Structure prediction request, 153 residues.
Amino acid sequence: MRIAVFPGSFDPITKGHVDIVERALPLFDKIIVAMGVNSEKRYFFDQSTRLNFLRATFQPYEKVEVDTYTQLTAFYCQEKGAGFLLRGLRNSIDFSYENTIANLNATIGDDLETVFLMADARYSCYSSTVVREIIKGGGDASIFLPASVAKLI
Ligand code: ADP
Prediction:
């Protein structure tokens, strides 16, 4: 079984994240969208809200599972029997960061392979940060969000 973990904060999930998962579906038998839970990090949406957003988004997808994890991403992948990490790349800032993390995960994760998909041009400016800023400013961020999530916000 080719299992990939798509790890992230998803604070909140955007259409950009969904696009990466949809485009990765033909590559894997199963994709686990895994929300990292880091007690030292401050989030805008709390854990259960972010998880509900993920559940609402991916409920129609047979090959997609939603989960949370607290341990190192590489160790979580081992527990799940996942040989692949899935990440999206929007720009060179993403690249510099992801390059380091992918090497780290390959080292501690027993050849755990990170698969990168380039952000679709339509979504390359979408980020959870932009969505949070719009919501904080009292604006409507619906255009950035999966329809099922926009309904919940
Ligand atoms: P993290 O805190 O781990 O970066 P995020 O939820 O911000 O978590 O992002 C998870 C993954 O989704 C990252 O690989 C990120 O580059 C990717 N991503 C975020 N937004 C987009 C987008 N608009 N298009 C493609 N990939 C994206």
Notes: DSSP finds six helices and five strands in the chain. The chain has a mean pLDDT of 97. Residues 92-108 form the longest helix (17 residues). The chain has one domain: 3-152.
